[in-house]
Amino acid sequence: MSRQTMMRVNFGSYNPVVVVVVVVVLLATMTVVDGYDNYNGQSSYTPSSSYTPSSPWQSAHATFYGDETASETMGGACGYGSDSGYGFETTALSTVMFNNGKACGSCYEIMCVDSKWCYNNVPSIKITVTNLCPPNWEQSADAGGWCNPPRSHFDLSKPIFMKIADWTAGIVPVNYRRVSCARTGGIRFKFEGNPDWLLVSVLNVGGNGDVSEMWVKGTETDWISMSRNWGASFQAFSKLGGQCLSFKLQNEDGNVVVAYNVAPVDWCTGQTYQSDTNFN
After folding, report:
1. What is the distance, to the nearest Å, from the Cα of residue 277 to the centroid of all Cα atoms in its chain?
2. Whole-angstrom Cα distance, residue 191 to residue 194?
3. Is 103 helix (H, G, I), strand (E, B) or coil?
4. Is the pLDDT of residue 171 over 80?
5. Residues 158/68, Cβ–Cβ less than 8 Å
6. Can you give the pLDDT at residue 140?
7. pLDDT tens digit sequence for 59-91
8. What gap in Å lies between CA 78 and CA 201, rounded to an integer?
9. 20-29 confidence digits (pLDDT tens)
10. Beta carbons within 8 Å of 134's beta carbon, 6+ residues apart
11. pLDDT mean across residues, the chain
12. Pair 215, 224: CB distance under 8 Å
């Protein structure tokens, strides 16, 4: 399968199809702040089997990108970076499914069907959305432009593709359904920006896995609505330096969680802070 048939957004490589408007250089040095649960980027994420289906089975196709190391699939259009904790159990979604980044963090269950390339008696896989598979207008939707609208399509990391099918197939039909995300621990908030402009990437979100709305509150402010910068990154143009920060999040189902006192008064960009709460 040619690289052109598997184009996607990846901050580590140039893609002529997609212009990435905002590029954030992630210089993360994790330190421990007394009294706050700073995330250790060296920790590993162990997927749980307790995912709960939240939608009926539907039909689509799946391809893969990158190699067996999954190094090319780290990061992506959701803005998680290479320390997301989602491992290689990830996927890029076609434009329609990606929904301008609103699908970031959501989870799907996939099984290979109706193809000689499918592995027999192999259970389904569970994956997290971390990237965008952009359209390829130079090829038709049924001959290389797999992610062109209005197709539903999954561009998986190669290691997770190889769990359901022979990779030499290139593309296989799949059944998929949305499932709740089984996460361990609280929601994580990765800080970038500066004291006057806070950019936060939200990770390890349970429940639906997505974040539709987000607010921040300093010890000297009311709740401030944050706008989506891109993917799972939200921003606030406010002077928040020198304040303890709390966050309120809402998912697409309208469920709300409040994470109080996530970051201390002396919070710094380049750090990831972990809350003690999450969606059910």
Report:
1. 19
2. 9
3. coil
4. yes
5. yes
6. 83
7. 999 999 875 655 555 567 898 877 777 878 899
8. 8
9. 333 333 333 3
10. 7, 8, 9, 15, 17, 18, 95, 147
11. 81
12. yes
| H-only helix segments in the chain | 95-98, 158-161
Give the max Cα distance, the chain: 62
Q: How far is CA 59 from each of CA 53, 152, 173, rounded to the nearest angstrom?
A: 15, 8, 7
Q: How far apart are CA 200 and CA 56, in angstroms?
A: 33
Written as one string, the DSSP assignment of 17-79 is S---S------------TTS-B--TT------S---B-S--EEEEEEEES-TT-GGGSS-TT-
**274 - beta bridge partners?**
188
25: CB partners within 8 A, 6+ apart: none
Reading phi first (left if > 0) and then psi (alpha if -120 to 50, else beta), residue 40 is in: beta
Dist CA 238 CA 226 (whole Å):
10
Domains and CATH numbers, the chain: 8-24+58-179 (2.40.40.10)
160: which DSSP letter?
H
- In the prediction, which pLDDT does 81 show? 77
Report the pLDDT averaged over residues 225-240.
Answer: 95
Task: Say if residues 148 and 134 touch (Cβ distance below 8 Å).
Answer: no
CA distance 210 to 103: 6
Cα separations (Å) of 5 from 2, 21, 116?
Answer: 6, 23, 21
Bond into 150 cis (ω within 30): yes
Beta strand 172-179 with 197-203 is unpaired
